[in-house]
Specification:
Layout: H1 5-12, H2 16-52, H3 54-71, H4 80-123, H5 130-137, H6 142-155, H7 162-171, H8 174-177, H9 186-194, H10 198-226, H11 231-238, H12 245-255, H13 257-261, H14 263-284, E1 306-308, E2 311-313, E3 320-321
Antiparallel strand pairs: 1-2, 2-3
Helix pairs in contact: 1-14, 2-4, 2-12, 2-14, 3-4, 4-5, 4-6, 4-14, 6-7, 7-10, 10-14
Length: 339
């Protein structure tokens, strides 16, 4: 990362729109490289879900057949045995959802960790190698990150995702911080960097999820005609006597093709947001501050640059500069006027 304090202040004060724009640019530039490791972990998660959960899905399909007549009957005639059967179905369904989320989330976090350091360095114009960064990503410091994000977020379903959102917003930056040099407490650092950036982080999740959802909605409409598979067909694939794990895995990958292809979008949008939060944190502790960058409590609504023999004030935020720069080191606005 640049040590130039002016450049650091510009990054720290970039608008959210500019950061998101940088994220899309980063996505386009690095997609061909990062889709391979991220996609690999995504496919592994699908394979494991289909293999490990096939018996539970078969049991659910059997229970579904048994409770169908109960659901269509008069509620006043439901027996305790029928009620117990419905509860078993409900708990099994919830268990299946949680297990699917656990498997998917663990491998998603692994994929994000694998490319996080590479994207951070690439975005900040540092020399980097994806292969070397992936090798360095898998170390013992990853374990608490994997446990918190990989397990904590899916288990937050029991609190209507309130805990999941809190964990995500406060600690998602840990996929970067545990790979920073001389960082002994990556979770504490991630929490510190997320202060003031919580809603920016949630915004990144919303934007990437919304784009994926819209494209996937169109894809699923086409996919349902290209490969029509009904519940009876799926049940036959789950059936131990006619089980087809090969078709289940192939169908699972084909059905999740758009989420697979767009998986890198989130981490690319998040990287500029993390960089800005990281630089702000460093500057707030004076780590990179320089004597010539000073601030003035002038009126922030100035419309014209205030120029004197000793320096210049930014027309956007009132920040004092000893000489005109291309960008204001305080607010990051472009100073495209002549002195």
């Amino acid at each position: 990362m640049s040590k130039d304090p002016v450049e650091l202040h510009r990054i720290a004060h970039k608008s959210y729109g500019n950061l998101i724009s940088d994220g899309f640019s980063l996505f386009m530039k690095t997609y061909k490289s990062i889709i391979i490791p991220i996609g690999l972990f995504f496919i592994i998660s699908i394979i494991l879900r289909e293999i490990l959960l096939v018996d539970l899905r078969w049991d659910l399909s059997v229970l579904e057949v048994r409770i169908a007549p109960i659901l269509n009957s008069d509620p006043s005639s439901i027996t305790p045995e029928a009620l117990q059967l419905m509860m078993n179905y409900l708990m099994s369904s919830l268990g299946l959802i949680v297990l699917e989320l656990l498997i998917s989330n663990i491998f998603t976090v692994l994929g994000l960790c694998a490319v996080a350091a590479f994207l951070f360095k690439y975005y900040n114009y540092q020399d980097t190698s994806l292969r070397e960064e992936i090798k360095g990503a898998f170390n013992k410091k990853m374990i608490p990150i994997l446990l918190l994000l990989g397990l904590g977020i899916p288990l937050g379903i029991f609190t209507l995702f309130i805990v999941s959102i809190i964990i995500f917003g406060f600690f998602i930056f840990s996929i970067y911080t545990y790979q920073l040099k001389d960082n002994e407490n990556p979770l504490k650092s991630a929490r510190a960097y997320s202060k003031g950036a919580f809603w920016r982080i949630i915004g990144v999740l919303v934007i990437s999820s919304l784009i994926t959802y819209i494209i996937n909605f169109i894809y699923q409409f086409i996919f349902s005609f290209a490969w029509p598979v009904n519940s009876l067909t799926l049940t036959s694939w789950y059936n131990p006597s006619s089980r087809r794990l090969d078709l289940l895995i192939l169908y699972g990958i084909a059905q999740n093709l758009i989420p697979l292809l767009l998986e890198p979008l989130f981490i690319c949008l998040l990287t500029p947001v993390f960089t800005s939060a990281y630089v702000k944190n460093q500057l707030s502790y004076g780590i990179t501050a320089e004597p010539h960058i000073r601030y003035s409590p002038m009126n922030r609504s100035l419309k014209e640059p205030q120029i004197s023999d000793k320096g210049i004030y930014c027309p956007f935020c009132g920040n004092y500069m000893e000489f005109k720069l291309n960008f204001c080191p305080n607010c990051g606005e472009k100073l495209n006027f002549e002195v």
